[in-house]
């Protein structure tokens, strides 16, 4: 039975890694779905055990946040933020700074995948209106969305997984990883300026076309207060006794009831493919966990909350996030850290797995979203063009992350 589980696990992760195999109609969600079904059919897990292995806290948190974000998107909040921040940019230097910090801070509270999906057309429009090349700003957007999303539990899917499983409060998570994200965004600013220094020697004036944005202020009167209330409740969750998933679901319910967008439209836009991918991947990893290999890995390589342990975890995250992407990597690491990790190990995994996603275009979903969205506007970012700033930023920020988390562990 162990051999069967190992074979299914290898096949599943091969599909996740390559996403396209000759003669097989497969991508990441279908590979994960196949693996989950195979674990049940092969008898590695019973149907009840498979259902029990799904982390419904994470799934419901994702659904709640998706409802909130989709409502805000349809109301035009992202357009409003982009328009009112980017129009402040007087030249290319300030535009780059604003793109980085607007994207980074927005990604912390609005989930980075959604932020980059909506910001990419705006950035391309601004650059074309101003007669400047968009690629440096799109790369900065990718890097900063990942870096900014590292600071909160709701910033990206892997942080949601870590936040739920670690039990770390929303506020404490933010306090510890805020300095990592802010310093990382500064590193991104200077790295992009250095690599594309020819673009910034004589900065051009930036213009913004207000006719390309749509705002539904009437609907925002309802959706924005709900969103603000949800963020406040995230920080006050320990006081109220409500868990983060319950708060997100409550916010989503009020969005559907009080907002002016038809609820069926919002629900239809939920990324059900991502939900299926997450749910089935939990089952695959549980089947593999039952083989005892993960326990043996823990015995061989205990993850300790010291400088060496943090360093190894950051290096491992850098390598495996490029191979299988950071979300599947994080799901695989959860049973390891459930037995060996204290809060600082969990924080190190959150920071490392997110920042490691900046190394290549395959490291995180946000990277692929921007690159594919940009192609629709005939803007192309190649693997090697992204690699130079990606590696520079990733290595620098992972080193900063290791040091900061180690110092926090020592002094706090």
Rounded radius of gyration (Å): 21 Å
Q: Structural class, from secondary structure content?
A: mainly alpha
Sheet with the most strands? none
Shape: globular
Mean pLDDT: 88
Write down how many β-strands occur, each being a DSSP E stretch of 2 or more residues: 0
Encode the helix/strand succession as letters.
HHHHHHHHHHHHHHHHHHHHH
The percentage of residues in β strands lies in: under 5%
Q: Share of helix among residues?
A: over 70%
Low-confidence runs: none
C-alpha termini separation: 45 Å
With helices defined by DSSP (H or I, 4 residues minimum), what is the helix count? 21
Number of domains: 1
Brief account:
By secondary structure, this protein is mainly alpha-helical.
Task: Explain the overall architecture.
The chain has helices at 2-18, 28-41, 47-53, 56-75, 77-86, 92-110, 112-130, 135-149, 157-166, 170-195, 217-235, 237-240, 244-258, 263-268, 272-289, 293-300, 307-324, 326-340, 343-355, 365-375, 383-411. 76% of the residues lie in helices and 0% in strands. The chain contains 21 helices and no strands. The protein starts with a helix and ends with a helix. It is globular. The mean pLDDT is 88. It has one domain (2-411).
């Amino acid at each position: 039975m162990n051999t069967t589980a190992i074979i299914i696990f290898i096949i599943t992760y091969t599909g996740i890694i390559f996403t396209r195999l000759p003669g097989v109609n497969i991508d990441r969600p279908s590979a994960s779905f196949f693996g989950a079904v195979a674990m049940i059919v092969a008898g590695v897990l019973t149907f009840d055990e498979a259902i029990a292995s799904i982390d419904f806290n994470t799934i419901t948190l994702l659904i709640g946040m998706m409802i909130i974000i989709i409502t805000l998107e349809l109301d035009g909040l992202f357009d409003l933020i982009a328009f009112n921040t980017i129009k402040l940019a007087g030249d290319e230097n300030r535009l780059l700074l604003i793109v980085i910090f607007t994207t980074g801070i927005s990604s912390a509270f609005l989930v980075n995948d959604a932020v980059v999906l909506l910001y990419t057309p705006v950035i391309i429009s601004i650059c074309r209106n101003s007669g400047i090349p968009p690629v440096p700003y799109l790369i900065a957007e990718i890097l900063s969305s990942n870096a900014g999303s590292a600071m909160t539990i709701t910033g990206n899917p892997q942080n949601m997984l870590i936040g739920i499983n670690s039990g770390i409060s929303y506020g404490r998570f933010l306090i510890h990883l805020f300095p990592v994200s802010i310093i990382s965004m500064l590193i991104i600013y200077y790295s992009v300026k250095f690599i594309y220094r020819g673009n910034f020697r004589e900065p051009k004036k930036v213009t913004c076309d207000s006719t390309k944005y749509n705002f539904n202020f009437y609907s925002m009167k309802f959706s924005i207060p709900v969103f603000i209330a949800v963020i406040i409740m995230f920080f006050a969750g320990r006081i109220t006794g409500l868990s983060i998933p319950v708060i997100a679901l409550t916010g989503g319910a009020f969005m559907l009831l009080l907002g002016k967008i038809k609820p069926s439209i919002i629900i239809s836009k939920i990324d059900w493919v991502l939900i299926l991918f997450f749910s089935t991947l939990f089952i695959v990893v549980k089947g593999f966990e039952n083989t005892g290999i993960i326990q043996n890995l823990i015995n061989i390589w205990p993850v300790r909350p010291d400088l060496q342990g943090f360093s190894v975890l950051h290096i491992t995250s850098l390598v495996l996030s490029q191979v299988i992407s950071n979300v599947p990597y994080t799901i695989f690491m959860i049973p390891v850290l459930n037995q060996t990790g204290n809060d600082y190990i969990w924080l190190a995994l959150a920071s490392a797995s997110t920042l490691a996603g900046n190394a290549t275009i395959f490291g995180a979903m946000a990277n692929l979203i921007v690159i594919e969205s940009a192609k629709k506007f005939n803007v192309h970012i190649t693997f090697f063009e992204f690699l130079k700033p990606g590696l520079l930023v990733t290595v620098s920020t992972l080193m900063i992350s290791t040091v900061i988390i180690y110092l926090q562990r020592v002094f706090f």
